[in-house]
Amino acid sequence: MKKFRKIALIAVAVIIGIWNIASADNIKLTGAGATFPYPLYAKMFSVYHNNYGIQVNYQAIGSGGGIRQVKAKTVDFGASDAFLNNKELKMFSHPVVHVPITAGAVVVTYNLPFVKELKLTPEIIADIFLGKIKKWNNDKIQAINPGIKLPKTGIFVVHRSDGSGTTFIFSDYLSKVSPVWASNVGRGKALSWPCGLGAKGNPGVAGLVNQTPGAIGYVELIYAIQNNMKYASIRNRSGNYIKPSLTSVKEAAKIKLPDDMRVSLTNTNSKTGYPISGFTWIIVYKDLANGGLSFKKAKAVINMLWWMTHDGQRYCEPLNYVPLSNNARIKAEKIIKSVTYKGKTLIGKKDVAR
Predict the structure, then answer these.
(1) How do residues 135-149 score in pLDDT, each as one tens digit?
(2) DSSP class of residue 160?
(3) Which pTM value belongs to this model?
(4) Per CATH, the architecture of 2-104+279-352 is what?
Protein backbone atom coordinates (compact mmCIF):
# COMPACT_ATOMS: atom_id res chain seq x y z
CA MET A 1 0.00 0.00 0.00
CA LYS A 2 2.86 2.37 0.93
CA LYS A 3 4.63 1.50 -2.33
CA PHE A 4 1.42 2.29 -4.28
CA ARG A 5 1.07 5.67 -2.55
CA LYS A 6 4.71 6.48 -3.33
CA ILE A 7 4.21 5.69 -7.01
CA ALA A 8 0.99 7.74 -7.05
CA LEU A 9 2.73 10.73 -5.47
CA ILE A 10 5.57 10.51 -7.99
CA ALA A 11 3.02 10.39 -10.85
CA VAL A 12 1.21 13.45 -9.51
CA ALA A 13 4.52 15.31 -9.16
CA VAL A 14 5.44 14.47 -12.76
CA ILE A 15 2.04 15.65 -14.05
CA ILE A 16 2.31 18.92 -12.08
CA GLY A 17 5.83 19.41 -13.40
CA ILE A 18 4.72 18.90 -17.00
CA TRP A 19 1.79 21.26 -16.45
CA ASN A 20 4.11 23.94 -15.06
CA ILE A 21 6.50 23.61 -18.00
CA ALA A 22 3.55 23.89 -20.42
CA SER A 23 2.26 26.92 -18.54
CA ALA A 24 5.69 28.58 -18.66
CA ASP A 25 5.77 28.01 -22.41
CA ASN A 26 2.14 29.07 -22.87
CA ILE A 27 2.17 31.65 -25.63
CA LYS A 28 -0.26 34.53 -25.74
CA LEU A 29 -0.59 36.55 -28.94
CA THR A 30 -1.98 40.07 -29.17
CA GLY A 31 -3.61 41.66 -32.16
CA ALA A 32 -5.70 44.73 -32.90
CA GLY A 33 -7.59 46.34 -35.73
CA ALA A 34 -10.63 45.88 -37.93
CA THR A 35 -14.14 45.47 -36.53
CA PHE A 36 -15.30 44.25 -39.98
CA PRO A 37 -14.08 40.64 -39.39
CA TYR A 38 -14.37 40.61 -35.59
CA PRO A 39 -17.24 38.07 -35.34
CA LEU A 40 -15.23 35.69 -37.52
CA TYR A 41 -11.93 36.29 -35.71
CA ALA A 42 -13.57 35.79 -32.33
CA LYS A 43 -14.77 32.36 -33.48
CA MET A 44 -11.46 31.44 -35.12
CA PHE A 45 -9.33 32.44 -32.14
CA SER A 46 -11.59 30.59 -29.74
CA VAL A 47 -11.37 27.38 -31.77
CA TYR A 48 -7.62 27.81 -32.26
CA HIS A 49 -7.09 28.18 -28.53
CA ASN A 50 -9.14 25.06 -27.83
CA ASN A 51 -7.21 23.06 -30.43
CA TYR A 52 -3.66 24.31 -29.92
CA GLY A 53 -3.59 26.09 -26.56
CA ILE A 54 -2.52 29.43 -28.03
CA GLN A 55 -4.42 32.36 -26.54
CA VAL A 56 -5.11 35.26 -28.89
CA ASN A 57 -6.17 38.59 -27.43
CA TYR A 58 -7.71 40.56 -30.29
CA GLN A 59 -8.97 44.11 -29.78
CA ALA A 60 -11.45 45.32 -32.42
CA ILE A 61 -10.43 49.00 -32.39
CA GLY A 62 -10.76 49.77 -36.11
CA SER A 63 -8.35 49.29 -39.00
CA GLY A 64 -6.63 52.63 -38.43
CA GLY A 65 -5.86 51.72 -34.83
CA GLY A 66 -4.61 48.29 -35.84
CA ILE A 67 -2.22 49.74 -38.41
CA ARG A 68 -0.91 52.27 -35.89
CA GLN A 69 -0.25 49.55 -33.33
CA VAL A 70 1.62 47.37 -35.84
CA LYS A 71 3.72 50.38 -36.76
CA ALA A 72 4.39 51.08 -33.07
CA LYS A 73 5.20 47.37 -32.52
CA THR A 74 2.81 47.13 -29.58
CA VAL A 75 0.96 44.10 -31.02
CA ASP A 76 2.04 40.85 -32.64
CA PHE A 77 -0.24 41.41 -35.63
CA GLY A 78 -2.65 43.99 -36.96
CA ALA A 79 -5.88 43.65 -38.92
CA SER A 80 -7.26 45.96 -41.59
CA ASP A 81 -9.91 46.08 -44.29
CA ALA A 82 -7.85 48.78 -46.01
CA PHE A 83 -4.60 47.73 -47.63
CA LEU A 84 -1.62 50.04 -47.17
CA ASN A 85 -0.73 52.09 -50.24
CA ASN A 86 2.87 52.57 -51.37
CA LYS A 87 3.24 55.83 -49.45
CA GLU A 88 1.93 54.24 -46.24
CA LEU A 89 4.23 51.24 -46.66
CA LYS A 90 7.26 53.54 -46.69
CA MET A 91 6.24 54.93 -43.29
CA PHE A 92 7.03 51.59 -41.61
CA SER A 93 10.54 50.97 -40.28
CA HIS A 94 10.65 47.61 -42.08
CA PRO A 95 8.58 45.87 -44.80
CA VAL A 96 5.19 44.41 -43.90
CA VAL A 97 2.95 41.94 -45.75
CA HIS A 98 -0.81 41.56 -46.14
CA VAL A 99 -2.30 38.11 -45.53
CA PRO A 100 -5.90 37.89 -46.85
CA ILE A 101 -8.27 36.06 -44.51
CA THR A 102 -11.75 36.52 -45.93
CA ALA A 103 -13.99 38.79 -48.01
CA GLY A 104 -17.28 40.40 -47.10
CA ALA A 105 -19.90 42.98 -47.98
CA VAL A 106 -20.34 46.51 -46.68
CA VAL A 107 -24.10 47.03 -46.69
CA VAL A 108 -26.11 50.24 -46.74
CA THR A 109 -28.49 49.74 -43.83
CA TYR A 110 -31.51 51.89 -43.11
CA ASN A 111 -34.21 52.36 -40.48
CA LEU A 112 -37.58 52.81 -42.17
CA PRO A 113 -40.16 50.75 -40.23
CA PHE A 114 -42.63 50.33 -43.10
CA VAL A 115 -40.13 49.86 -45.94
CA LYS A 116 -39.09 46.23 -46.21
CA GLU A 117 -37.20 46.44 -49.51
CA LEU A 118 -35.22 49.38 -50.88
CA LYS A 119 -33.22 49.95 -54.04
CA LEU A 120 -30.44 52.52 -54.28
CA THR A 121 -28.17 53.67 -57.10
CA PRO A 122 -24.53 54.73 -56.73
CA GLU A 123 -25.50 58.34 -57.46
CA ILE A 124 -28.21 58.37 -54.80
CA ILE A 125 -25.92 56.86 -52.15
CA ALA A 126 -23.26 59.47 -52.91
CA ASP A 127 -25.77 62.32 -52.78
CA ILE A 128 -27.19 61.09 -49.45
CA PHE A 129 -23.76 60.92 -47.81
CA LEU A 130 -22.80 64.25 -49.41
CA GLY A 131 -25.87 65.78 -47.74
CA LYS A 132 -27.54 66.66 -51.05
CA ILE A 133 -30.53 64.34 -50.64
CA LYS A 134 -32.14 65.10 -47.31
CA LYS A 135 -35.59 63.43 -47.42
CA TRP A 136 -36.55 59.80 -47.93
CA ASN A 137 -39.37 60.70 -50.34
CA ASN A 138 -36.92 62.44 -52.68
CA ASP A 139 -38.00 62.04 -56.31
CA LYS A 140 -34.83 60.16 -57.28
CA ILE A 141 -35.31 57.53 -54.57
CA GLN A 142 -39.04 57.25 -55.25
CA ALA A 143 -38.47 56.80 -59.00
CA ILE A 144 -36.49 53.58 -58.58
CA ASN A 145 -38.80 52.26 -55.87
CA PRO A 146 -42.23 52.33 -57.54
CA GLY A 147 -45.07 50.96 -55.47
CA ILE A 148 -43.33 51.83 -52.20
CA LYS A 149 -44.65 54.81 -50.29
CA LEU A 150 -41.55 56.46 -48.91
CA PRO A 151 -42.02 58.69 -45.85
CA LYS A 152 -41.31 62.41 -45.71
CA THR A 153 -38.89 61.64 -42.90
CA GLY A 154 -35.55 63.39 -42.97
CA ILE A 155 -32.50 61.23 -43.68
CA PHE A 156 -30.19 60.91 -40.69
CA VAL A 157 -26.71 59.94 -41.91
CA VAL A 158 -24.51 57.77 -39.66
CA HIS A 159 -20.84 57.16 -40.41
CA ARG A 160 -17.75 55.91 -38.62
CA SER A 161 -15.97 58.22 -36.21
CA ASP A 162 -12.80 56.12 -35.97
CA GLY A 163 -10.17 55.12 -38.52
CA SER A 164 -11.96 52.33 -40.34
CA GLY A 165 -11.34 49.82 -43.09
CA THR A 166 -15.10 49.62 -43.56
CA THR A 167 -15.02 53.35 -44.29
CA PHE A 168 -12.14 52.76 -46.70
CA ILE A 169 -14.14 50.16 -48.66
CA PHE A 170 -17.25 52.37 -48.67
CA SER A 171 -15.38 55.54 -49.69
CA ASP A 172 -13.31 53.60 -52.26
CA TYR A 173 -16.59 52.58 -53.86
CA LEU A 174 -18.04 56.10 -53.77
CA SER A 175 -14.83 57.55 -55.23
CA LYS A 176 -15.19 55.22 -58.21
CA VAL A 177 -18.86 55.95 -58.89
CA SER A 178 -19.08 59.66 -58.04
CA PRO A 179 -16.64 62.28 -59.42
CA VAL A 180 -18.03 64.80 -56.91
CA TRP A 181 -17.31 62.45 -54.01
CA ALA A 182 -13.85 61.69 -55.38
CA SER A 183 -12.90 65.38 -55.61
CA ASN A 184 -14.65 66.66 -52.46
CA VAL A 185 -14.25 63.79 -49.98
CA GLY A 186 -12.11 61.03 -51.47
CA ARG A 187 -11.20 57.62 -50.10
CA GLY A 188 -9.59 56.79 -46.80
CA LYS A 189 -9.93 55.18 -43.40
CA ALA A 190 -10.87 58.52 -41.81
CA LEU A 191 -12.70 61.25 -43.71
CA SER A 192 -13.89 64.80 -43.35
CA TRP A 193 -17.58 63.97 -43.61
CA PRO A 194 -19.91 66.48 -45.30
CA CYS A 195 -22.81 65.56 -42.99
CA GLY A 196 -24.07 63.12 -40.41
CA LEU A 197 -23.07 61.81 -37.01
CA GLY A 198 -20.16 59.49 -36.27
CA ALA A 199 -20.18 56.27 -34.25
CA LYS A 200 -17.32 54.01 -33.21
CA GLY A 201 -16.88 50.69 -34.95
CA ASN A 202 -19.35 48.62 -36.91
CA PRO A 203 -21.26 47.92 -33.66
CA GLY A 204 -21.57 51.67 -32.99
CA VAL A 205 -22.93 52.46 -36.44
CA ALA A 206 -25.35 49.51 -36.32
CA GLY A 207 -26.57 50.56 -32.89
CA LEU A 208 -27.15 54.20 -33.84
CA VAL A 209 -28.99 53.32 -37.06
CA ASN A 210 -31.09 50.77 -35.21
CA GLN A 211 -32.30 53.27 -32.61
CA THR A 212 -32.89 56.20 -34.99
CA PRO A 213 -35.91 56.18 -37.34
CA GLY A 214 -34.94 57.62 -40.73
CA ALA A 215 -31.25 56.74 -40.27
CA ILE A 216 -28.92 55.33 -42.89
CA GLY A 217 -25.42 53.96 -42.41
CA TYR A 218 -22.91 51.40 -43.63
CA VAL A 219 -21.79 48.26 -41.79
CA GLU A 220 -20.38 44.83 -42.53
CA LEU A 221 -23.12 42.36 -43.47
CA ILE A 222 -22.93 40.24 -40.31
CA TYR A 223 -23.67 43.28 -38.11
CA ALA A 224 -26.86 44.00 -40.05
CA ILE A 225 -27.93 40.36 -39.85
CA GLN A 226 -27.15 40.02 -36.14
CA ASN A 227 -29.11 43.19 -35.36
CA ASN A 228 -32.08 42.28 -37.57
CA MET A 229 -31.50 45.35 -39.73
CA LYS A 230 -32.68 46.04 -43.26
CA TYR A 231 -30.20 46.77 -46.04
CA ALA A 232 -30.55 47.99 -49.60
CA SER A 233 -30.08 46.35 -52.97
CA ILE A 234 -27.56 48.41 -54.92
CA ARG A 235 -27.32 48.88 -58.68
CA ASN A 236 -24.01 47.60 -60.00
CA ARG A 237 -22.10 48.56 -63.13
CA SER A 238 -24.18 46.15 -65.20
CA GLY A 239 -27.36 47.92 -64.15
CA ASN A 240 -28.58 45.09 -61.93
CA TYR A 241 -29.82 45.67 -58.39
CA ILE A 242 -27.85 43.28 -56.22
CA LYS A 243 -28.58 42.22 -52.66
CA PRO A 244 -25.45 41.66 -50.54
CA SER A 245 -24.91 37.93 -49.95
CA LEU A 246 -22.21 35.29 -49.91
CA THR A 247 -22.92 34.52 -53.55
CA SER A 248 -22.80 38.13 -54.77
CA VAL A 249 -19.55 38.82 -52.86
CA LYS A 250 -17.97 35.66 -54.30
CA GLU A 251 -18.81 36.97 -57.76
CA ALA A 252 -17.22 40.33 -56.98
CA ALA A 253 -14.04 38.55 -55.82
CA LYS A 254 -13.58 36.75 -59.15
CA ILE A 255 -10.88 39.06 -60.44
CA LYS A 256 -7.19 38.84 -61.26
CA LEU A 257 -5.35 38.92 -57.95
CA PRO A 258 -1.90 40.49 -57.48
CA ASP A 259 0.83 38.53 -55.69
CA ASP A 260 0.81 40.92 -52.72
CA MET A 261 -3.00 40.69 -52.50
CA ARG A 262 -3.42 44.46 -52.14
CA VAL A 263 -6.53 44.72 -54.26
CA SER A 264 -9.91 46.46 -54.29
CA LEU A 265 -13.13 44.57 -55.03
CA THR A 266 -15.45 47.59 -55.20
CA ASN A 267 -17.54 48.56 -58.25
CA THR A 268 -17.21 45.09 -59.76
CA ASN A 269 -17.93 44.54 -63.44
CA SER A 270 -19.52 41.18 -62.63
CA LYS A 271 -23.17 41.13 -63.70
CA THR A 272 -24.21 39.44 -60.46
CA GLY A 273 -21.49 40.84 -58.18
CA TYR A 274 -22.24 43.04 -55.18
CA PRO A 275 -20.48 46.39 -55.75
CA ILE A 276 -19.36 47.23 -52.18
CA SER A 277 -17.26 44.16 -51.39
CA GLY A 278 -13.76 43.87 -50.00
CA PHE A 279 -11.06 41.67 -48.55
CA THR A 280 -9.80 41.96 -45.01
CA TRP A 281 -6.15 41.27 -44.15
CA ILE A 282 -3.86 40.52 -41.25
CA ILE A 283 -0.72 42.65 -41.44
CA VAL A 284 2.62 41.51 -40.04
CA TYR A 285 6.27 42.41 -40.52
CA LYS A 286 7.90 40.42 -43.33
CA ASP A 287 10.66 39.57 -40.85
CA LEU A 288 8.87 39.18 -37.54
CA ALA A 289 12.03 39.94 -35.56
CA ASN A 290 11.62 43.51 -36.85
CA GLY A 291 8.22 43.62 -35.13
CA GLY A 292 9.80 42.91 -31.75
CA LEU A 293 8.54 39.31 -31.53
CA SER A 294 10.46 36.46 -29.93
CA PHE A 295 11.14 33.42 -32.09
CA LYS A 296 8.45 31.43 -30.26
CA LYS A 297 5.87 34.16 -30.83
CA ALA A 298 6.88 34.54 -34.47
CA LYS A 299 6.46 30.80 -34.99
CA ALA A 300 3.08 30.91 -33.26
CA VAL A 301 1.87 33.81 -35.45
CA ILE A 302 2.86 32.00 -38.65
CA ASN A 303 1.21 28.74 -37.56
CA MET A 304 -1.94 30.67 -36.66
CA LEU A 305 -2.04 32.44 -40.05
CA TRP A 306 -1.60 29.15 -41.88
CA TRP A 307 -4.49 27.63 -39.90
CA MET A 308 -6.71 30.68 -40.47
CA THR A 309 -6.20 30.52 -44.25
CA HIS A 310 -6.78 26.76 -44.36
CA ASP A 311 -8.73 24.83 -41.69
CA GLY A 312 -10.10 28.05 -40.21
CA GLN A 313 -11.86 28.91 -43.47
CA ARG A 314 -14.69 26.52 -42.54
CA TYR A 315 -15.99 29.16 -40.12
CA CYS A 316 -16.42 31.88 -42.76
CA GLU A 317 -19.71 30.99 -44.44
CA PRO A 318 -21.66 30.21 -41.24
CA LEU A 319 -20.90 33.81 -40.18
CA ASN A 320 -21.70 35.29 -43.62
CA TYR A 321 -18.11 35.88 -44.68
CA VAL A 322 -16.71 34.59 -47.95
CA PRO A 323 -13.90 32.02 -47.68
CA LEU A 324 -10.77 32.49 -49.76
CA SER A 325 -11.01 31.17 -53.30
CA ASN A 326 -8.44 28.58 -54.34
CA ASN A 327 -6.46 31.28 -56.14
CA ALA A 328 -6.56 33.65 -53.16
CA ARG A 329 -5.52 30.83 -50.81
CA ILE A 330 -2.50 30.01 -53.00
CA LYS A 331 -1.48 33.69 -52.95
CA ALA A 332 -1.91 33.72 -49.16
CA GLU A 333 0.28 30.62 -48.82
CA LYS A 334 3.12 32.27 -50.74
CA ILE A 335 2.88 35.40 -48.60
CA ILE A 336 2.93 33.39 -45.35
CA LYS A 337 5.88 31.30 -46.54
CA SER A 338 7.78 34.51 -47.35
CA VAL A 339 7.67 35.66 -43.71
CA THR A 340 10.94 35.03 -41.85
CA TYR A 341 12.61 35.44 -38.47
CA LYS A 342 16.06 37.02 -38.72
CA GLY A 343 16.17 35.90 -42.31
CA LYS A 344 15.24 32.27 -41.63
CA THR A 345 12.04 30.62 -42.81
CA LEU A 346 9.34 29.96 -40.22
CA ILE A 347 7.00 27.54 -41.94
CA GLY A 348 7.83 23.83 -42.13
CA LYS A 349 6.16 20.60 -43.25
CA LYS A 350 4.74 19.98 -39.77
CA ASP A 351 3.18 23.45 -39.75
CA VAL A 352 1.70 22.98 -43.23
CA ALA A 353 0.14 19.74 -41.98
CA ARG A 354 -2.01 21.81 -39.64
Answers:
(1) 999 999 999 999 999
(2) E
(3) 0.89
(4) 3-Layer(aba) Sandwich (3.40)
